[in-house]
Amino acid sequence: MSVTAPERSESTSGRADLRNVAIVAHVDHGKTTLVDAMLRQSGAFAARAELVDRVMDSGDLEREKGITILAKNTAIHRDGVTINVIDTPGHADFGGEVERGLSMVDGVVLLVDASEGPLPQTRFVLRKALSAHLPVILVVNKTDRADARCAEVVDESLELLLELATDLDLDDDVVAHLLDLPVIYASARAGKASIQRPVDGEVPDSPDLQPLFDTLMTEVPAPADDPNGVLQAHVTNLDASAYLGRIALCRVRSGRIRRGQQVGWCRENGTVTRVKVTELLRTEGLERVSAEYADAGDIVAVAGISEVTIGDTLADPDDPHPLPRITVDEPAIAMTIGTNTSPMAGRGGGAGDKPGSKLTARLVKNRLDSELVGNVSMRVLPTERPDTWEVQGRGELALAILVEQMRREGFELTVGKPEVVTKEVDGKVHEPFERLSVDVPDEHLGAVTQLLAARKGELLEMQHSASSQNVRMEFRVPSRGLIGFRTEFLTETRGTGIANQLFDGYGPWVGELRARISGSLIADRPGAVTGHAVGLLADRGDLFVGPTTTVYAGMVIGENSRSEDMEVNIVREKKLTNMRQSSQDVLERLTPPRILSLEQALEFCSEDECVEVTPGAVRIRKVILDSNERHKARNRSKQGLA
Hints:
Layout: E1 18-25, H1 31-41, H2 60-65, E2 72-78, E3 81-87, H3 95-102, E4 107-113, H4 120-131, E5 136-141, H5 150-167, H6 172-179, E6 183-187, E7 192-194, H7 210-219, E8 232-241, E9 245-254, E10 256-258, E11 262-266, E12 272-276, E13 279-284, E14 287-290, E15 293-295, E16 299-303, E17 313-315, E18 333-339, H8 361-374, E19 379-382, E20 388-393, H9 396-408, E21 413-416, E22 419-420, E23 423-425, E24 428-441, H10 445-453, E25 458-464, E26 470-478, H11 485-492, E27 498-508, E28 520-523, E29 527-528, H12 531-536, E30 541-543, E31 550-551, E32 555-560, E33 566-568, H13 583-586, H14 598-604, E34 609-614, E35 617-622, H15 627-641
Parallel strand pairs: 1-3, 1-4, 4-5, 5-6, 28-33
Antiparallel strand pairs: 2-3, 6-7, 8-9, 8-17, 9-16, 10-15, 11-12, 11-17, 13-14, 13-16, 18-20, 18-21, 18-22, 19-20, 21-34, 23-24, 24-26, 24-27, 25-26, 28-32, 29-31, 30-32, 32-35, 34-35
């Protein structure tokens, strides 16, 4: 049965009927699954509605990758109270989304896996919550995992809270409250939660999530915003509608906002423009419904301001008081994005490889500019070339997601190898560092340690698990040392290792790092790949292309088993003679090619390579396609170093 929103009177003497809360956690600890269960048990879905797992992950990429990329909000009605829930990303690369989500709420639910415990990105989201002085509710999720260790995870979480409280120099009263914070044990997939710790490996004894709802009501304070003050609504996110145009998602910090009202739009440049609120929308479950007004503490969507952006304030036009702009951490990783300059630009490469429809520099620049409107953690800078721009973000994943979205929109791009954004401190170059947490079986301990030592990784801590044959290690590694690390790491651990990283500030430049140990196999002429050539080159390394694939000179078609690059003829045809052969001689036994994803291609790139991205293909190529020009550039580089 559907539960309707509680009746709201015109009186604004307090908001006991409202709670605003964000759910924060490390990647894959169950945030979105928990929101699903809360929505189902609050009657947000109609009786005949089709139930879909992870309904809050509405984007195609979010469903494919199993991660939350954009912070989203929903409204849950329970026992006469509206609970606005913000589902935030767990990955540090989307920190801008986390910070915007936390600016809208009065408390946080910290979700921690009952087996894995706090991980690096748990530290990241928790630091943001404590910095905002928000009360914390600890939820230990997945108690029904066979390797659950609830008591230890609670202790580890409390230790992390105290460590962060010390780092942030929080008041003694806040620290005392953290020591006494409420703990809920849950199985989000089963839709059950309890304040009593269950036996490890079992679901909580409660029939539903009522203990969690009760804790939210008592521990998360009602909005303390002033209902009788002058209007202040802070724009924290953006959306768009085919009918309404750009939509600003706001938290009303003071006063009341009405549909059709004239408001003062306070912009970043300090100007205040009088605009009209053409539509006011409130979230009910997963839908937005029209509303006449919204009071202090409400989270609403406002339409009618075509150029509104994140951080703006909607205020009383006669007495405007803009709120502070939203600030996020500086980007640490950069890569170049430009138009596709390969010989196959706009042509496609055969069956299934459709060409893009957006090829010009103007279209690429407009798309990058539009990304800046809704992504406060990204920067776009000009380069020496008019058709190429440097895009800076929080990490490789955030930049790869942008490129993947653009290719699905029909763009063809040339994407450079990711590089770190450096700073100059006291006349010396400083580079970003990452805190890396690695969980591997004992047998791979030596291989992983050696792998990270070559990348200038410093071992900080090592813990052996008592319940399994795994070891957890903490490293501090230069960010550029982790570019291309994941593929090698999975190879060394045979896919059994888990690695998580978190930005850990800047430090002095550590010098040259070991580059990729293998070279590239490069096509020396254009044409279609033949089965005969693939068979001849099988022992040279791993190929990225199969028979009939169209290639061009300068395209990287495989990974060389040796350290140097090698130019090969991948389109060579077998010479025909009039001599008869047995069927055994005619058959070619070919190894299937290794197809690289966009992230894998970006990791594989060496300094003189880039990635060609089209809607139908991802290709690695040399920046300089001509072989002779490439050799000349290499010689000039060596002479410059000498």
